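Render this sequence as a predicted structure.
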Amino acid sequence: MSILFTFVPVQIISLQIRGYHCDAYGHVNNARYLELLEEARWKFLEPAIQNSSFDFNKLLFVVVQIDISFKKPLVPNQWIDIDISHLEFKNSSISMVQEIRDKNTKEICTQATITFVLLDATSHKPVSISNDIKEKFENLIQQ
């Protein structure tokens, strides 16, 4: 069973694309997109990390799948926003949609669906997504 939470995109982070993000073709290299998206996920989770919200369960977040669509290139000095637009909870995985948008035009440059599982830090086995975990994620969206 799957529970989908769709909401107005939540802006997580704004960044300026720097020269070191780019390759010889003058745009962001595809591997760098993963770093930009990960930076936004860490920023999204930061309040829960600071409050040790997931520590009491000794949980690890592990990305298991990334489906990414490149729509427009990112170039040096461009300002971008990275948003999260929905979360989907399954039995032992959580998926989120992240979008990289041009800060000025609001056009979607990249869209990615990230799926991760929660692992028990001791056994390294997947943990079922409890209502408590869903609630913690809902609280992160509202912050």
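Summary. The helical segments are 30-50, 131-142. The beta strands are 3-16, 59-70, 79-89, 93-102, 108-120.
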